[in-house]
Design goal:
Strand order of the largest sheet of chain B: 3-2-1-4
Number of helices of chain A: 9
Number of strands of chain A: 14
Largest sheet of chain A: 6 strands, mixed
Largest interface: A-B, 25 and 23 residues
Shape of chain A: globular
Largest sheet of chain B: 4 strands, parallel
Strand content of chain B: under 5%
CATH superfamily of chain A: Carbon-nitrogen hydrolase
Radius of gyration of chain B: 20 Å
Shape of chain B: globular
Oligomer: heterodimer
Strand order of the largest sheet of chain A: 5-4-3-2-1-14
Helix content of chain A: 25-40%
Number of domains of chain A: 1
CATH class of chain A: Alpha Beta
């Protein structure tokens, strides 16, 4: 069904759960008052990003009473937020919870942890092991956390599951201020923002799905987060984009009619040859090219 | 070759100055704010780097909240103080002048490294280097002392080129709480200076640490900033190897000299080395950001 989603581009305070919870509550209330039915926050929105040794200190179980203020509000508006998850077996995950009608409806654990350059997630988190779509009151969704969106399998698996929208929370650092990165109109633009936009548009075109990207802003020890949260429609057209530095809210209308029209115009899902992928993967495995 | 002539025509290094400025202003405001401060101070030398840092800080905190500290030594070039004054006036910064001659000379005399002193085996150059370090560290003492009275953080003025080359004094000009210029090559600092309308007198003169009479950075380094920038951006940011740089037309000898400087000065860019003995050791596996919990 059609619905109104609000991307909440925020600036979480590193390691301060209660301040961040307060910030979520205020943003959720404002989003609800603006008519949103879903509020989407960035990756690790409750904790901040470069947690390092704080990961274990701030990790919460899914049934934590700490989520209560968000669960209470989720009767009026569904909320997707990021947190460090402690599983029952003690493993830690970089997770996003989707809460609705007073309960945690779904948790996605980041599959593709980033451990290169400035990133070291593999040292602190375990990797999630799947891309499971879920059904909300407002449609079928799939969650991909930042790097999950850069690898092909996640978006592809949600495409196969026929989601209405992919929700992509990230904590993407601002990078690239070269003159060569200026956009066509001459406006200033971060290279990181340009690259994300290309990726969002390409993925939306290939999967004929709404994609909503919620990045964050602010600084953690000199690393700035690039904002520019945005949404693209199933034709790969940008619906709106927030600025790179300030917090803000982006209203996105998810229209099932647009999805239907895109998929009628070019029936990519109908003509997808999943059997071919299965057979080719089996062959590559036999030949020792994948494991 | 003057820096202003040499810094033209480096399109691969050109930045979007308005975006860079917006990011750096936000960086200063937020990182200083997170530490519980809303004011800053810095040494204003009359050179291009500190002028750009000062202009960014003025935008971040408001001019009245940025203390410009001018710290001449008795042999400093008179242009240095004049140009610092020009920048402070243009930006509307409060200025504090602290002449470091007495404190520096007190130590220089004690250590017996005054200019013209018999060098007793050591070269005159070594004494000049030691005096230069003394000046830089005296200035650090002044800034950190005034930071208490001013209730602000010390903002750095070192650019990426000089930091990579190790062209700085450890615990001297390299000491500061945060640094908006540390990821900008010299060419990019010039670009930002023009965008921030830093007076032309500063942009047009040859860069100098002004630690001894007639000194210029490029003469002392033995190559131009433009050449260093072009090599460093490829070597560091784009991970070119020596052969690839030579294939691009750079002189192998220069590439090696610059690479060697980067390696030999790594210690200046890192905190002191700690011997690990226990289970969880500072700078090894006790891993928290500075912004942790503040």
């Amino acid at each position: 069904m059609d619905c109104n989603l609000a991307v909440c581009q925020t600036n979480p305070t590193l390691g301060n759960l209660s301040a961040n919870l307060e910030m979520h509550v205020a943003a959720v209330d404002a989003a609800r008052d603006s008519g949103a039915q879903i509020a989407l926050f960035c990756e690790l929105s409750l904790t901040g990003y470069f947690l390092k040794d704080q990961t274990a200190e701030l990790a919460l179980t899914v049934d934590t009473p700490f989520f209560a203020p968000l669960l209470e509000r989720s009767h009026g508006i569904s909320i997707a937020f990021g947190f460090a998850e402690r599983a029952r077996d003690g493993r830690l995950y970089n997770s996003v919870a989707f809460v609705e009608d007073g309960r945690v409806l779904h948790v996605h654990r980041k599959v593709h942890l980033v451990s290169y350059g400035m990133f070291d997630e593999g040292r602190d988190f375990g990797a999630g092991a799947g891309f499971t779509a879920f059904k909300s009151r407002f449609g079928h969704f799939g969650i991909l956390i930042c790097e999950d969106f850069w690898h092909l399998p996640g978006p592809y698996l949600y495409f196969l599951q026929g989601v209405d929208a992919m929700l992509v929370p990230s904590a993407s650092p601002a990078r690239g201020v070269s003159e060569l990165d200026r956009d066509e109109s001459g406006a200033a633009r971060l290279r990181s923002g340009t690259v994300w936009q290309r990726l969002l548009e390409a993925r939306a075109l290939l999967t004929q799905t709404y994609i909503v990207h919620a990045n964050r802003v602010g600084w953690e020890d000199g690393i700035g987060f690039g904002g520019q949260s945005s949404a693209v429609d199933p034709f790969g057209r940008e619906l709106g984009r927030l600025p790179p530095i300030e917090s803000g809210r982006l209203a996105v209308r998810l229209d099932t009619g647009a999805t239907r029209r895109a998929r009628v115009q070019t029936p990519l899902r109908r003509d997808e040859k999943v059997w071919l992928l299965r057979e080719e993967l089996a062959r590559l495995e036999r030949e020792g090219l994948v494991s | 070759m003057s820096a202003s002539a040499a810094d033209g025509g480096l399109p691969e290094l050109d930045i979007q100055p308005e975006l860079t400025c917006a990011l750096l202003v936000d960086f200063l405001r937020e990182e200083v704010g997170q530490a519980g401060f809303s004011r800053a101070l810095l040494g204003l030398s009359g050179g291009i780097d500190s002028a750009v840092s000062a202009a960014l800080a003025a935008r971040a905190f408001g001019a009245a909240n940025v203390l410009a500290v001018n710290m001449p030594y008795r042999t400093s070039h008179p242009d240095s103080a004049a140009h610092a004054g020009l920048v402070a006036d243009r930006l509307g910064l409060p200025v504090r002048a602290v002449d470091i001659s007495a404190m520096a000379d007190g130590y220089i005399e004690t250590a017996g490294i005054a200019a013209g002193t018999s060098t007793a085996g050591a070269s005159a150059d070594t004494y000049a280097v030691r005096r230069g370090n003394v000046f830089a560290r005296c200035r650090m003492i002044v800034l950190y002392d005034l930071s208490v009275e001013w209730r602000g953080l010390v903002v750095g003025t070192s650019n990426k080129t000089e930091m990579l080359l190790g062209y700085s004094t450890q615990w001297g000009d390299a000491a500061h709480a945060l640094n908006p210029l540390g990821d900008l090559y010299k060419h990019q600092v010039y670009q930002l200076a023009r965008y921030l309308e830093i007076p032309a007198e500063l942009i047009d003169k040859a860069p100098s640490a002004d630690l001894f009479e007639g000194q210029t950075d490029e003469q002392e380094l033995g190559f131009t900033y433009a050449a260093a920038d072009r090599i460093l951006v490829r070597m560091v940011d784009e991970r070119y190897g020596e052969d690839e740089l030579v294939a691009e037309g750079f002189e192998r000898e220069l590439v090696r000299r610059i690479a060697r400087k980067v390696v030999l000065s790594q210690y200046k860019r890192l905190p002191p080395v700690i011997a690990k003995l226990g289970q969880r050791s500072i700078n090894h596996d006790f891993r928290y950001l500075r912004d942790w919990g503040i």
